[in-house]
Structures are given as structure tokens and as C-alpha cells.
Amino acid sequence: MKTVKKFLAVLLAAVTVFSLSACGSDPNQTTGTAPAASASSEAEKSGPDDSKNVKIGVLVSDVTSAEALAFRAYYEEYIQKQYNVTFMYSDELADAAAEASAIDNFIANNCKAIISFASADRPAQIEQCEANGVYYAVATGTLTDEQYEKFKSYKYYVGAIGPDLMTEYMAGYNMAKSFLDQGYKYFGMFGGATPYYTEMHIYRAAGMLVAMCEAGKGTYLGASDFGGMIGAIYGAGCQLAPAVIGDVELVGYVGGYDFDDAWFGKLAAVANDPKVEVLLAVGSGQTAFAGFKREGQKLGDIDCYTKDSVALMESGTLNYLAGKFSASIGPIFMATLSAVQGHPIRNAEGNAFAIGQGYWVADNAETAKEYFAVDSSKTEPAYTRAMLDTLYGASYQDFENFVKAYSFDEIKNLAK
Amino acid sequence: MENEKIIRKEQTRERLLRLAPVMGLILLFAVFMAIAVIRDINIPYSFKNIINQSVIVVVGATGAVFIYTLGSFDISLGASLCVSALLGAMAYNRSGSLLVMLLTCVGVAVLISLISSVLASVFNLPVFVTTIAMLSLLNALALVLIGANGTGDVIQVPAAAVRGINNVWVKLAVMLIYLGFCVFMFNYTKLGRHEKFQGGNPVCAKLTGLNGKRLAIAAFAIAGIGVGLGAFLTITYAPTLSRNTASSVGMDIIISIVFGGMPVSGGARSRIWSAAIGAVSMTLLNQIMLTLSLDSGIGQMVKALIFILVVFISMSNNKGNILPR
To answer: What is the domain class of A49-163+326-358+382-415 according to CATH?
Structure first.
């Protein structure tokens, strides 16, 4: 018995020593360094190389939301069938350590690139990928100015496409303004992840509040413009509260994602307040308010196009939706594939790109249905293969022009 | 003669069941290697990955074995790790010293553990009850610390500060030193023997003069050291900390300990190596699921089934109230 135990212990120790002695190997040994970029026009003409499978890791911090599922469906049910690529998805990533671990898993499984939807620690993700010779791209998000300045010249940093903070601000501003222009004055707001210092939601909330300040000719937390409002929100520790804003009033406010009885109670209290005419949500408005909304109240949300949201638009429960379209992650995929295959898309200074892309806005059921039909199509999504192939090895200018033409009508024109 | 045969058969069965976790680990390793070769994955990098992913759970769970041996459990270990890491990071940012960070992580973790065990002692409650209360308290404390730090929703240590120690050799050294300490304390000192006795039969232990509360305090203190080391390693691996840091570690520790063949009731059959075997086994299983590209839901179901099987085997090794002879 003791002999057996000793044998097992020695076997385990030997395996450990053997494996550790190989640990210093460069994970990119089999792939070598990134190949030099060829002339972009030649690359564009030849199109993506489908002869060899390319594994791409996808980091996700959210696996169950409708938006996350729609993005995944576009990659797995359209892109993966059109191109010789394999997407490897992470589990839901709660923190920076989980992100680092997921990237390690991808590298171990020979992923040539990583597309990230997770943002607990983007700088660490970029550094980890750079150190291991793996391309990294940000989908549906952006780096801060400071981060971009630091990483823009990194060899393996592809770039970022997504709503920049000004786009987020304008999404909130336009949504609130659309209701203010209709004469509504009393609002309830769901602040989402604002208390958690999530910039995306802070800027959307700021946009809504500035629109209210302009319409009501008042101030909120002493601010009434973009810069002042952002500062005021941070100054308040990102804890917003109801307030009178001139002729307009923020009657009720709920922030955070507690998902407990008290949280649902607060949402119900805001929605059931007889004074509240319009419910605005920086995100997840359908979850937060749709179940409590009173007859005659309006609901606006910044989210994504799903079967459920379209049904809510048709029933009149949801009245305004600014949503990401699932194919919006097509260009970042193509830029990543292009980089992996030796044709990185860099701007005039030779740096990674940072391109803003916004939302499709629907304020009626017909428009929402039309958008959703395209967005959910498995055969003719908003960005088809034919359209994405034009981005392969494209010049920065062509790439930027393509991405910035993101409205539904502009994309329809691009497709022709 | 007949009786001797039966006894020998039972002893063989018991030995095999005791070796089952190790055999399981070897089997998982063999499966992983086979899949790795077939799928042509980066094996050296995978080994480094396995160490990175398992070392925090190994140190946390190994210390927790002392608690589980008493027949108790601590549900707040993950939250304790989070708070220890947050305070450790804050200590680094004020002092610029990695040593201060390490001492803060360990000190805070030990203090939290001692509070749990001392409170249980004062109020004469089962220790796990106070750990349930500590869980809520620590989760709230994490939010307070992040808010008080004034840097948004994270607390960060500069990546450059920990880059030098974020390597396999440092992690292995920490793990092996702590494992060695725990093995020594558990297998070669009175403390370990007394804990097994206390966990196996608290009534007899009390009648022989053992102080259960003191044993609990010692067990929690040792577990606290493991949690503190885990917090330090967490910061070196991912120096951006949030309220979600180590959110899954608590559950991973419990699963690792059981996966490694530790009897859930503690007592004489407790094994200090259970945690390390379980943690590495779990990590290998995760790697296998990932390499096979199994859907996350299916992967979780497979892990759950294996977990139930392991617990079943572990429970079948327990012949009720009869201690090993």
C-alpha cells in the first residue's frame, strides 16, 4: 500500500516537473510573430483566406441577456458558417481575474485573436494579449482616451468599435428629448449600473438629465450642460435622486441591479406614482419597468432589438427603443481576421483604430419590426459576408466610412 | 478464516476508496493529455494555466480542511478573501510595499476568521452560523471599502508592481510552503489528531478533556492564513479588484474539498491532501470541458454529475459510527 502511494506521489511529481520545465515556451512558437502587412488593395481583392481555420476567443461578461445572445447568434450562426473560423466563448466573467483566466484558456487552446465584450480590466487584457502575441479587439465598447493613447501603437491591439461616450450621452439626450418635445414633464428614471460607476450608463443618464434641464430651464445638482452634469453625477458618488428641474421633474429614480424584493418594490413605486408620465431607462428598461407600467405611461429604453422588445412596441408598452443591432460586431470581426491573416487595418499614424458606432432608434412598432427582421436574420443580417469582405485589408478611411454608416438606411444603401 | 477474509476484503475496499480521489486525478490528467494531443492545444501553456487557476483555491481549501475536519464549514471564505485582497491592495497603494500587502492580506484574513470563531464561542453557536452572518457583513464591507477608496468601482494595484511576482514559480513556492505547513500541522502534531477526534465524536472528545472552542479557533486561524495567501495571489494575478473579486472562490473551495474525497462530516477520515487533489481535479475537468467546446450548461451538468458521484463514493466509504481500525 505504501509502495503504491509512493509510486503515485513520484508519478505526480515527475509530471509536474516535466510540465513546468516546458512552461517557459512561447505560446506563439507554432505561429511565429505576426506577419507583415501586405498591400491592402491586394488583400482586399483576394479576400479572407478560408483555407485554414482561425480560432477566435470571445470574452463575455454577460451570457444571458438578450443582447449577449443576439451577438452570439450572429457570430455562431452566421459568421462561423460563412468563414472558416471557430469562436470559443468564455463563461460569464465576474471580475478581472476571471478575464485573465479566460484569456489564458484561449491562448492555451491556440486562439489567434480575442474579441472582448468584457471590461473589468481592459488594460490588463490588452497587456496579456500583447505579451502572448494574440490579437485583441474591443467589440461594442471603447477605451478611455488615456488608455487609447497608451495602447494605440501596440502591435497586437486591433482597435475598438462601439458607442463612444458622447454617443451614449446623445442616446440618452435624444430619448428624453423625444418625450419632452411631445410635452411630457414628469419622469421616472432607471439608472442601471450608474451607482457602480459604469460610464456607459452614467453618460446616458447625463444626457437625459441635460435634456430635462434644457426643456425645464432648470438645473440638476447645479448643472445643466454636458460637462457640468458629468461632474455633478460623479460628485454625487453616482447616486442620483429625484429632483425638480425647472418646469420638469424627475419624480422617481432607481439605480443598481439588486434584483431583490426591495429593488422591485422601488421600481414599482416609481412606475405606480400617478405623477410619472414617462419612464426612462439607461438599459434593461423592459426588465425594470415593463411589468409595472401604468396605462397611458410612456416607456423609453436603450437596449437591443429582440422578439420581446418588438412585442412590447407592438402592444404599446414600449414607446422608444435605441438599440444596438447584432451585426454591429461584424466589422470588428473582419478587422480582427484581417489582422490575423497579415493585413492589419491601421490609421494614418499606423495606430489601432477607435471608431464610434451608434444605435438604431425606433419610436414606433413598424420601424422596430423592420429593424428586428433584419437584425435577427440568419441569412441576410445587416452586415452580410459580401459587405464584410470589402473590409478585408481595407484602407483605414474605407473601413471608418463603412463603420460610421451604421444607421439602418445607410446600411441598406451599403448593401445595394 | 471466513471472518479474516471479510475483514481483508473490507480493508482492501476501504483502501481503494481512499485512493479513489488520486486515481480520479490521474484519470482526469490522462484524459486531458489525450484530448490536448488530439486537439493540438498548447500543452505547456495549459499547465501554466492550470497552476494559475488552481493555486488560489488550493491554498484557500487546504486551510479550510482544518475547519471541515471539525465537522463544521465556513461559507464566508470567498467574501473574506475579497475583503482581505481589497485591504491588501489599499495597503500597497499607501505603502508601496509588497511585504506590507502580503502581511495585510494575511492579517486581515486571520482576523476575520478569528472573529467568526470567537463570536461562535461567545454566543455558544455552531460556528457555521456566525460565518453566514459574516458573509453578509463582508459583502457589505467590500462595497464600503470600494466606496471609501474613491477610485470608482475598483481598487487597483499598479500592474507593474506585481508583474515580477506574477509567475508560476512564486505561486508554486507559496502553495508548497503553505501545503507543507498544513500537512505538518495536520498529520504530525496534536492539533491535527485532536481536530479529527473532535470532528469524529465531539462528546468523547469533550469527555477526554479537549476544548472544542479552542480547536475551532485554531482551525479558523490556520484557514485564515490560507485565505490571506489566496488574497495575495489574487492581487498578483489580477491587480484590479472589484466587489465581485473572488465571488466564486467560496463555492470552489467547498467543491474542491468534497471533490478531493474529504468526508463532509469531517472526523478521522479527513485528509489534508483532499483540497489540493480536488482543486486540481476541478481545474482539469474545466479545461477538458473547454477544450471539447462543450456548451457551458452541459459542462455544468457534467461537473454536477461527477460531483454527486464523488460524494456518493465518499459517503459509501463511511461505515456510519464505526471509526477506522
So the answer is: alpha beta
